[in-house]
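hey can u check if this looks right to u? its 154 residues, i copy pasted from the old doc so theres a chance i mangled smth
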Amino acid sequence: MKSELVELISDELRARLERLAKAAIAAHEAATDPGSKAESKYDTRSLEESYLATGQARQVKDLRATLMAFENLRLGDFSLNDPVDAGALVTLRKPGSQQKILFLLAPAAGGLEILYENQEVTLLSPESPLYAKLMGKMLGEQIEAPDFEIIAIC
């Protein structure tokens, strides 16, 4: 199950990388186009295009690294008695609610949401406060702010 989820994540990251790379190329071309040469000392179009191209190139580099991390990622399985750790797919439920929320403790791409088998799975990266709160918790334990109960770990 998790290998299929990782493949869906990789596919989404590839699609985002393709779109971002095209935008970065377009920004670079706009920044270096002779027609964008400043017409006066107050004309900053070329400078702004250059900043945009630089930022997008950095995002492309970061996204490539994230994609490579997922392409090389092997997620282990967890048993009922295992604590939450990196790579766990954790199902949470708010007390008194039947709605389930799924989180994958991933190495990167925090906040990315993937639809898997009609369930939305949100990626949590190590920078996330919720990631830190979940680490080491056991099935049935509760976490606070936000209030959730761990109902499954796999």
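Residues 89-153 form one domain.
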